[in-house]
């Protein structure tokens, strides 16, 4: 008897039907423990839902994951939404997706308030000093990890290099880079299809965990099958919901109001997150720092560091951006900064994640049928290749602000450089988790601040 059978001895019978309450408790728990980024979150769901509880078979789980990876947005949160939808329909999908995000939203609101209120306290300043170079190392590691998986030929390497030059040298907007990559990928998929057949799919482990509640050959529920009427219905509901929310903000604060512009900006950002959260961060930086001036470049780095240390999707850094932007604007007066920041964080989160729910509930049955079709996957492969260059540009930006915080003419922060190099080695060579690296670097920074 192997270790798996010892841990889960009765794996020959199909599990009992899962109630909505049981699903609610699981998704709530996951929302509080989903550390480790997309890879860690997907691993947690696989271990719990496929191996232990057997709510869904591995093949169906991986099929859902590959579908979610074709969409813009956080794939782990979309995977939770998809499985919840597959098990309990629309209410199950919404419940799973919301609970995946909600705990991290509340945690980030609290951390953002502490950051803005007590950021100059020596201990807090030391922690931030230590985690900034760690964040730079994490971004470099993300570029390396995605690049090693996607850049499998000279064509894709060239696209990554061109994307880096476009944004670093010529300051081309991120949406334009995504659009150009998609067009080139579509054309390339027709001319040289072998060059663009390098998608990052996930294969089965080949292990049999026993019969699952949703097994390989379980007939799909009626609500998961494609229907034009359902497509039109949910599309209209989504459009009305988005229009109503943005309309309320515009009526209350004007189109140029901070919250209204946040809603509009993060709606666009949600449609550009091909390749994961690191891919959209440059766009959030361009908008939040350079265009709208909601926060500074240094604050953006701090926000990413806070996002790395909380459960939930990394793209939740948008909540920090929204909090700082609304706090700085003193939307409700200088005496209600916490209320303003909370409103900004909630607006950023709602408009960032609303499209993810719509992609699953509206496009799930339709897009799933196109999985593996090169004319759909080639543009996504090209976009992901371009994203590697964009992420590398983000790493250069972070490194500049961390190592030369006062400009190139000022002193080089060699201590930060050492911390950053150690963090990168820990991630690459010793396979340490992001949370572990952040924690160690934070302790190092606090020790330097308090005892140096």
Question: Briefly, what is this?
Answer:
With 452 residues, this protein is mainly alpha-helical. The chain has helices at residues 3-7, 20-33, 37-52, 58-69, 75-118, 122-150, 154-168, 174-191, 228-253, 258-270, 277-291, 297-308, 317-329, 337-368, 374-403, 414-428, 434-451.
Descriptive overview:
Mean pLDDT is 85; it is low at 1-9 and 199-204. This protein has one domain (107-198, 221-451). It is built from 17 helices and no strands. With 452 residues, it is mostly helical. The relative contact order is 0.17. The protein is 72% helix and 0% strand.
Amino- and carboxy-terminal Cα gap: 55 Å
**Can you count the helices?**
17
* Helix fraction by DSSP (H/I, runs of at least 4): over 70%
Please give the radius of gyration in angstroms: 22 Å
The number of domains is 1
Which oligomeric state applies? single chain
- The global form is globular
Q: What is the makeup of the main sheet?
A: none
Strand and helix map with partners:
Layout: H1 3-7, H2 20-33, H3 37-52, H4 58-69, H5 75-118, H6 122-150, H7 154-168, H8 174-191, H9 228-253, H10 258-270, H11 277-291, H12 297-308, H13 317-329, H14 337-368, H15 374-403, H16 414-428, H17 434-451
Helix pairs in contact: 2-5, 3-5, 4-5, 5-13, 5-14, 6-12, 6-15, 6-16, 6-17, 7-15, 8-15, 9-10, 9-14, 10-11, 10-13, 10-14, 11-15, 13-14, 16-17
């Amino acid at each position: 008897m192997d270790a798996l059978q010892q841990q889960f001895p009765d794996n020959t019978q199909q599990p009992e039907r899962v109630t909505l309450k049981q699903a609610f408790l699981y998704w709530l728990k996951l929302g509080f423990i989903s550390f480790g980024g997309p890879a860690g979150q997907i691993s947690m769901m696989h271990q719990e839902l496929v191996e232990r509880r057997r709510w869904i078979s591995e093949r169906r789980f991986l099929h859902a994951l590959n579908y979610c990876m074709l969409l813009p947005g956080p794939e782990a949160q979309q995977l939770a939404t998809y499985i919840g939808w597959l098990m309990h329909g629309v209410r199950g999908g919404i419940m799973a997706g919301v609970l995946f995000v909600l705990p991290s939203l509340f945690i980030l609101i609290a951390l953002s308030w502490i950051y803005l209120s007590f950021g100059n306290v020596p201990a807090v300043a030391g922690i931030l000093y230590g985690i900034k170079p760690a964040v730079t190392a994490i971004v470099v590691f993300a570029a390396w990890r995605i690049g090693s998986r996607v850049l499998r030929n000279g064509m894709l390497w060239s696209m990554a290099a061109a994307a880096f030059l476009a944004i670093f040298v010529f300051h081309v907007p991120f949406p334009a880079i995504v659009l150009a990559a998609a067009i080139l990928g579509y054309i390339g998929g027709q001319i040289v299809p072998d060059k663009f057949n390098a998608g990052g799919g996930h294969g089965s482990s080949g292990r049999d965990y026993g019969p699952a509640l949703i097994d390989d050959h379980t007939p799909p529920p009626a609500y998961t099958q494609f229907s034009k009427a359902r497509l039109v219905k949910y599309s209209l509901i989504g459009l009305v919901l988005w229009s109503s929310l943005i309309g309320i903000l515009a009526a209350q604060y004007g189109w140029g109001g901070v919250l209204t512009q946040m809603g509009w900006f993060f709606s666009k950002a949600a449609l550009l997150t091909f390749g994961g959260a690191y891919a959209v961060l440059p766009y959030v930086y361009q908008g939040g720092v350079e265009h709208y001036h909601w926060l500074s470049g240094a604050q953006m780095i701090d926000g990413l560091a806070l996002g790395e240390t909380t459960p939930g999707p990394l793209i939740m850094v948008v909540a920090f951006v929204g909090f700082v932007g609304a706090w700085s604007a003193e939307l409700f007066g200088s005496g209600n900064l916490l209320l303003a920041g909370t409103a900004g964080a909630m607006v950023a989160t709602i408009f960032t994640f609303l499209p993810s729910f719509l992609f699953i509930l509206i496009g799930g049955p339709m897009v799933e049928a196109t999985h593996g079709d090169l004319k759909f996957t080639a543009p996504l492969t090209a976009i992901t290749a371009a994203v590697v260059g964009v992420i590398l540009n983000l790493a250069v930006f972070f490194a500049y602000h961390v190592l030369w915080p006062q400009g190139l003419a000022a002193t080089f922060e060699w201590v930060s450089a050492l911390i950053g190099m150690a963090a990168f080695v820990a991630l690459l060579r010793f396979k340490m988790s992001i949370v572990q690296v952040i924690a160690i670097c934070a302790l190092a920074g606090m020790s330097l601040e308090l005892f140096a």
